[in-house]
Design brief:
It is a single chain. By secondary structure, this protein is mostly helical. It has one domain. The chain contains seven helices and no strands. α1 packs parallel to α6, α3 runs parallel beside α5 and α4 runs parallel beside α7.
Length: 140
């Protein structure tokens, strides 16, 4: 039963998509060496950075200027998400550490989605410019 819980919680983290303030770019080699909890922290940090960036956008010009940052964050998030899907689940201690991050990851994903909704209300034209670049964070 305990093993099922660990695997289920780790699955939730992976399904959510991915904290610390660790939104700095990481190479593929660095991501590959990260432990499961570090991957979860990285996903949380990337989502937090994207949420903060999105919250500061209120004009079409600001949205266009932010596209390169969203592309970089989205690419990074996708790499971390892919690494989370391939985590070795046989190390129950590491999986438990990753599972402990699940509430933080879910909360940050919810905050990000809330900010996506908010920009659509603030400026629908700016939102339309950004939406294709924000889909990376939802696994699309």
């Amino acid at each position: 039963m305990k093993r099922f819980f660990i695997v289920a919680m780790a699955g939730l983290i992976v399904a959510c998509g991915g904290g610390t303030d660790n939104a700095e770019p990481a190479s593929a080699a660095t991501i590959e060496k990260m432990k499961p909890a570090e991957l979860a922290d990285k996903a949380i940090a990337d989502l937090k950075a994207a949420t903060t960036l999105l919250a500061g956008i209120s004009t079409v010009e600001a949205a266009e200027a932010a596209i390169p940052q969203f592309k970089a964050l989205g690419d990074q998030y996708a790499k971390v998400n892919a690494a989370m899907r391939t985590v070795d689940q046989s190390d129950s201690r590491q999986m438990m550490k990753m599972a402990e991050k699940s509430p933080l990851l879910a909360a940050q994903l919810q905050a990000f989605m809330g900010e996506v909704n908010a920009i659509q209300s603030r400026n629908s034209d700016a939102a339309q410019i950004l939406l294709p670049h924000l889909r990376t964070f939802s696994g699309q």
